[in-house]
Write a structure and sequence with these properties.
Helix 1 packs antiparallel against helix 3. Strands 1, 2, 4, 5, 6, 10, 11, 14 and 16 form a nine-stranded antiparallel beta sheet that branches. This protein has a five-stranded antiparallel beta sheet with strand order 3-7-15-12-13. The protein has a two-stranded antiparallel sheet with strand order 8-9. Helices cover 33% and strands 32% of the residues. The chain is α+β, with helices and mostly antiparallel strands. It is globular and about 60 Å long. It has six helices and 16 strands.
Length: 226
Amino acid sequence: MLLHVPGVLTPEQVARVRDAIDQTEWVDGRVTAGVQSARTKQNLQLPQDSTAAREMGELILAALQRNALFMSAALPLKVYPPMFNRYAGGHSFGSHVDNAIRQVPGTPHRVRTDLSATLFLAQPEDYDGGELVAEDTYGVHRVKLPAGDMVLYPSTSLHHVTPVTRGERIASFFWIQSLVRDDGRRTLLFDMDSAIQRLARDVPDHQSTVQLTGVYHNLLRQWAEI
């Protein structure tokens, strides 16, 4: 499932993040790439141990906790600390699949990458190119979203970023280990949760709402890994 999550950050929060990271020194993005990815990765990244990266990452994590759509779709167990990248002057990232396991720097903790996320921090009209192109069983999806919006997609997807030929593409990216590892099961739960919410809104106090909610939680209980 590839999902557009709008309004993760408000315009004011986007401005705050940009002000913080734009004043920080950026480094070659290949420092966090695997052997194969490093061959096709051309961008800049904020050092993970920088003050701006840590503080703005915490701001994003707090925003995610408040976002009902993200919580329903991702069912997050762990979220890798958000990172930040910048594409300009022809930068691109060739086709790749994200590493299955990510070690959180400076800790013994590891995150299994069930879902990948890109949170856009530049308006689409401010740069040319820079589309995230993800491939799945339903075809090829090209994504370029307003600042503050996020795309969520399975980390098993083959994906790439097209060259940025004008302006700068600024984004935060990170990975999620879900309570439910399987994308198909996670999608079923998301669809059921969405239907339950619509039923509760359109037909308040309908007796089926309680029954369906019970089914949802029993499936989650059966499939969740904690």
